[in-house]
Amino acid sequence: MTDYDCIIIGAGFGGLRAMIEMRRRGLTARVIESGSDVGGTWYWNRYPGARTDSESWVYCFSFDDDLLQDWDWKARYPDQPEVQRYLAHVADRFDLRREIDFDTRVECAVRDDATNSWTVSTSSGNQLTCTYLIPATGPLSVPYLPPFPGIESFRGEWHLTARWPKESVDLTGKRVAVVGTGATAVQLIPEAAQLADHVTVFQRTPNYVIPARNGMLGDNQRRSIKAHYGDIWKQVGEHVFGMAINAAGRVLADVDGAEARRILERGWEVGGFRFLFESFDDVFTNQETNDVVSEFVRDKIRSIVVDPTTAELLCPKGYPVGGKRPPLGHHYYETFNRPNVSLVDVSGNPIESVTEAGIRLADGSEREFDMIVFATGFDAVTGGLTTIDIRSSAGVSLAEAWADGSETQLGIGVTGFPNMFMIGGPGSPIGNFPPAQDVAVPWIADAIEHLRATGADAMEADQSAMQAFGRHLRDMIDATVFGQGDELRSFLIGANVPGKPHVPLFHFGGFPAYCKELQDCADAGYVGFTIKAAPVRAHV
Ligand code: NAP
């Protein structure tokens, strides 16, 4: 007899969704959360400017109509406090807090085949047992800080965006360095520029930044969204990235040059990912189309940024739009026209160290700062899982099992780790995460119900199925421009963290295709998994 049916790791979108579902299915569950509140990545990433890149009305749970009708989103892209409030509202509305251990980290989780259980040890010294382990650690939970020597010697303040202090950080009148120009830095830089005396941006690779065109939602818009949620979720279910956006219905070759320009201009004004998805359907799959869209963005950068040298440095070259995940900007390029913002290109002259006074580059030049902000990304997808000591019954850790690259069946199961069901594990669909969890979590709950209904003990991914799924992930990414990320150090394939194996960390076949694969698997009796009666034999 275990303490709980399920132990869920993490109280972000995935963990909260899992807690609600398991309880609805009559299973007992406990959530272990390292933060002192719900939110997951939205709890930790509270840097100035943090907000979603997905439109609010679909960056939320779809499973409960009352929740959808009761919650009023304020902006097209909610900021961190608004998302945090939403998740706190969900936790309170479904009375989840009493089943969450906050400020508690799962240190290890060990599977025992003989007793068909997992023993979970936490930072508070507790040991809890469960039958089903549900890691919901999130794709972006472990920050990556490059090993710059000297960080600890810096006399000013330094911060990681992904661990931004709860107490407000005062940038006013300070000389601030920002390292990185990914989606996080792109949000932070315009905010920092309004407060700081001077912001110096250290850029290694420029990005294709699309204007977000944020705005407050009006009452009529909110009413209309609520009245049409049925259609909206249908659209989400049919969209490659799980967004409420219709396919463009055309490819570049369907139109002449002038019409292509008009379409892209319109998309640029509408903003957000609509620029990419509503313009042409082959932006990510056809090099010629991608070239036209990429050049259009470079033209925009040159037209916005007044200083031609800065403009050229900000222009991404030699790689396609989508090669790295395109950030959404809120007056990002315009910010470089401010007299208190400067750009330092470190592509050929890398950061060598952090000194007592600031940042030193390889050529020996040094700049002094009062504050350094590292917006240097994440050990994405696998980091949250491999930093926990998750062990098979045979004593093999998940980190060891994935030493040559993560392998999963459908992003959910791993050979050697029976009854571990990951939410958002490697191979889950890229795109808008909450709708993906609204599909994956009920699938997992169905699988558990299936086990219990048939008197089976455990479900374990088959090695051959994981290998086939790995090949499938590779084929899918290779059919798109996302696969060109090796030299670009793209986190989508683990290439941003030195030494991390380069494998596709997401399913790039589109959200509808992934949902169908899940459904087909279940319909075929959970093909690719072995369902076992006790005693369970270990595979690793
Ligand atoms: P990121 O895209 O991985 O960007 C990290 C940045 O740090 C890059 O510009 C990288 O340069 C730079 N960097 C790393 N090591 C460096 C070094 N040694 N020297 C100089 N620069 C270095 O990370 P992120 O910006 O945190 O974004 C990660 C993901 O989080 C996003 O793509 C998105 O999925 C998510 N996110 C979402 C939102 C949202 O939805 N609103 C907001 C923020 C983030 P290189 O490119 O040259 O490696």
Automatic annotation (TrEMBL):
Claim: NADP is one of the keywords in the record: yes
Keywords from the UniProt entry: FAD, Flavoprotein, Monooxygenase, NADP, Oxidoreductase
Coiled coil, from the record: none
The keyword Isomerase appears for this protein: no
Transmembrane feature ranges: none
A single GO molecular function term of this UniProt record: oxidoreductase activity, acting on paired donors, with incorporation or reduction of molecular oxygen, NAD(P)H as one donor, and incorporation of one atom of oxygen
PANTHER family: DUAL-FUNCTIONAL MONOOXYGENASE_METHYLTRANSFERASE PSOF (PTHR43098:SF5), L-ORNITHINE N(5)-MONOOXYGENASE-RELATED (PTHR43098)
Protein name (database record): Cyclohexanone monooxygenase
